[in-house]
Design goal:
Layout: H1 2-6, H2 13-24, H3 26-30, H4 35-40, H5 46-55, H6 59-84, H7 93-102, H8 113-130, H9 138-152, H10 162-172, H11 177-200, H12 204-215, H13 226-248, H14 255-277, H15 285-303, H16 307-327
C-alpha cells in the first residue's frame, strides 16, 4: 500500500510528502531533548557556526529547521531526476525513502552540520551532471568543486568526498589533467578564503585545534538496540538487492542513466565505508548517504516485477522504522 502511493508522480504527493515528513519527525517533537544531540554531533565548522546559535537555541526550532531542510532536499532529488532522468519513472518514492532515513535516528532529526552541508553536496552533484557531454565544462567542474568545499565548511566530513568527485568526473568524461585542476581549484578556493578570514580574526588556530581534537577521537554513536539493527539491517539488505538489480539491468539503461546511477552507487558505498572505517565518523554520515541510497532503492522498486515482494519488502522497512521510533 505504502509503496503504491509513493511510487507514483501524482500531484497530491506534493502535499502528502510534507505531511509524511511531519509524521516522521513526530517522535522528535514528543521527546524533544537537545542534550544528546549537542553531545554527539561533529565539530562546529565556520559556516555552521553562523547558524548554530539560532537553529539550536531551542529544541523545537532545531527540529523544525531540519524538517524544512530535509523536505527541500527531498524535492530537490525529484528535480534532479526530472532534469537528468537517471530513474526512468517519475516518482516521489526516493523523496519518501530519503526522509525516512534521515528521520530514523535521534541525532539526525536535529539541525546537524550535515543537513546544511547536504544541500551543497547535491548542488555539487547537479553541476557535475551538467558538465556531462559539454565540450568545455570548466565552469560546471569549477562550481562542482566549489560547492563541495562549501559543504565542508558546514560539515568537516564532506571534505572527504573529494576523491568521489574526481572518480565521478572520470566516469563522465575523458580525463584531462587541466579539468582535474579546475575541480581542485574550485575546491580549494573557499578553504583558502575561509582560512584567511579566520586568520585575520585570530580564530584559525582555534578551528584547527578543534578539528584535530575531533578527528583524533572516536565518535561511533550507532543507536545500539535491536530495533536499530532490524531497520538499518533491512535497509542495507534492500541496498544490496538494489545494487544487484542495477547490475542486472545495466545493459538496458541509457548510457547517461548508467553513469549517473553508478556515481550514486560509488557515493553510497564510499560513505558507508567511511562511517565504519574512520573512528571520528558518526551517524551524521547517514544524512549525506540518504540521497544515493534512496535513489538506488527507488530504481530497484521501479524495475521490480513482483508486486507482492515489492510491497512486502517495503512494508517491512516501514514496520522496522515504526518499531525503532517507539522503542529507541
Amino acid at each position: 500500500m505504502f509503496l503504491k502511493i509513493y511510487k507514483t508522480n501524482q500531484a497530491y504527493l506534493i502535499l502528502l510528502i510534507p505531511l509524511t515528513a511531519i509524521l516522521l519527525w513526530l517522535t522528535g517533537f514528543i521527546n524533544c531533548n537537545l542534550e544528546n544531540f549537542t553531545a554527539n554531533r561533529s565539530v562546529t565548522m565556520p559556516l555552521y557556526a553562523l547558524f548554530n546559535s539560532f537553529v539550536n537555541s531551542n529544541c523545537y526550532i532545531s527540529l523544525i529547521v531540519t524538517l524544512i531542510l530535509a523536505l527541500g532536499q527531498s524535492f530537490y532529488l525529484a528535480n534532479l531526476n526530472k532534469n537528468f532522468i537517471f530513474i526512468k519513472q517519475r516518482s516521489y518514492l526516493h523523496s519518501f525513502i530519503f526522509l525516512l532515513i534521515i528521520s530514523s535516528s535521534t541525532l539526525t532529526k536535529f539541525a546537524t552540520p550535515a543537513i546544511f552541508a547536504n544541500f551543497f553536496i547535491l548542488f555539487s552533484i547537479n553541476w557535475l551532471f551538467h558538465s556531462f557531454k559539454k565540450i568545455r565544462p570548466n565552469t560546471e567542474l569549477f562550481n562542482s568543486g566549489l560547492f563541495l568545499s562549501i559543504a565542508g565548511l558546514f560539515y568537516l566530513n564532506a571534505l572527504l568526498l573529494l576523491p568521489i568527485l574526481l572518480i565521478a568526473y572520470i566516469v563522465l568524461h575523458t580525463v584531462k589533467f587541466k579539468e582535474f585542476l579546475v575541480i581542485i581549484s574550485g575546491f580549494i578556493t573557499p578553504l583558502i578564503l575561509s582560512a584567511g578570514i579566520l586568520f585575520i580574526n585570530d580564530k584559525l588556530f582555534i578551528y584547527t585545534e578543534s578539528i584535530w581534537n575531533y578527528i583524533t577521537q572516536t565518535n561511533y554513536n550507532f543507536d545500539n538496540n535491536i530495533f536499530s539493527y532490524i531497520f538499518y539491517g533491512w535497509l542495507i539488505l534492500l541496498l544490496i538487492i538494489s545494487i544487484l538489480s542495477f547490475s542486472n539491468n545495466f545493459g538496458t539503461k541509457k548510457i547517461s542513466s548508467r553513469k549517473y546511477l553508478s556515481i550514486f552507487l560509488f557515493l553510497a558505498l564510499y560513505n558507508i565505508g567511511t562511517y565504519f572505517l574512520l573512528p571520528f565518523s558518526n551517524m551524521e554520515m547517514m544524512i549525506i548517504t540518504a540521497a544515493p541510497i534512496s535513489l538506488l532503492i527507488t530504481d530497484f522498486y521501479v524495475n521490480i516485477k513482483s508486486k507482492f515482494w515489492s510491497e512486502f519488502s517495503f512494508t517491512i522497512l516501514i514496520i522496522g522504522f515504526i518499531l525503532l521510533q517507539v522503542y529507541s
